[in-house]
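Re: Re: ligand-bound prediction request (bumping)

Still looking for help on this. To restate: I need the protein modeled with nicotinamide-adenine-dinucleotide bound, output as structure tokens. Inputs repeated here so nobody has to scroll up.
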Amino acid sequence: MAYEFPKARHPLPSAGKDELIVIAGAGGFIAGTLVSYFHDKGFARIRAVDKKPLGEWYRTTPGVENLSLDLSIEANCHRACEGAAEVYNLAADMGGMGFIETHRVDCLRSILINTHLVEAAWRAGAKRYFYASSACAYNTDLQKSPEVVPLKESDAYPAMAERGYGWEKLLSEMFCQEYWAERGLATFIARFHNVYGPYGTWDGGREKAPAAIARKVIEAKAKKTNAIDIWGDGTQTRSYMYIDDCVKGIDMITHCDALVATPINLGSSELVSVNHLVDIAEGIGGVKLERSYKLDAPKGVAGRNSDNTFIKKVLGWEPKTSFTDGLTKTYRWIETQYADRAAGKRIVE
Ligand code: NAD
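Reply:
Sorry for the wait, this slipped through. Here it is.
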């Protein structure tokens, strides 16, 4: 049985186009794209915040205020939220399976970011607050077989989240819910299922499966090795959401009063096995590679998909980009990055 939180009794206010939107984690993949999305929508005052030095941000958007601040420090959260009408928290220390299974302490420490940021948003009188949660918050006992039952929102409890990263997400969700229930800050929570696309990490250990496989195919072609190594036995399944669907979903969820303090899946429901992912990437690259399976590599749960019944009911929408279309765009982008790196140019990694 999921927790129930009070519903909004009156329409909740939103940021006007001339009011300040604060986006945390903006030096990273999703928040960097969200900045550009709101900018293109006509929001004139956007403050983008990330702990990385500006030179390391994946992208910046002209006309946006960029602050380099560590949001695990409370005073920095107050600085970041000064004058904010809406706050979006996408800042976290995270990565793909290779990262979250070996950096549980780093993942857990992201609790500091949301703890201080939600408090600062409330003190600043923000109208709406968004929190980026994850499908890793779901009970892992439900995800042991590749014959996946799609996860619905109530499947987070009884709780048995992914150690480290998933528990941090679950507890941060609770902070958001209680700030609404006890203090009246309108909070919105999306549980993302694997997001991918241009400007995402594609090398270095934090990348997720779509970018990692695309890079390996590109590398095998460039180095003429004709071989690819795959983590696990290739039967693990996931759904992957294209970045454009993700930022649109964040906007829709944050501005839907019926979803206040109510975690909701934001993911594609198109299930893809790792083997099939490799087939598609090989198809895009026009090669066929010798596969070797690394059975002792981190592989996460056996299978996971997003049950989109709730989002379709509330928003009349779900992420729609087909995996083949999204991966084609992502592959082409990584290909360019790969070539730029080889030529000694600056890249996103
Ligand atoms: P990302 O790593 O590209 O971006 C996160 C950003 O947060 C980074 O730029 C990092 O420097 C910044 N950050 C970390 N600690 C910080 C701190 N103390 N202060 C300020 N900034 C800090 O990750 P992403 O893929 O863009 O993910 C964004 C959010 O979405 C995260 O909360 C993540 O957990 C969540 N999420 C992502 C996915 C996915 O597939 N990408 C899936 C589920 C949930």
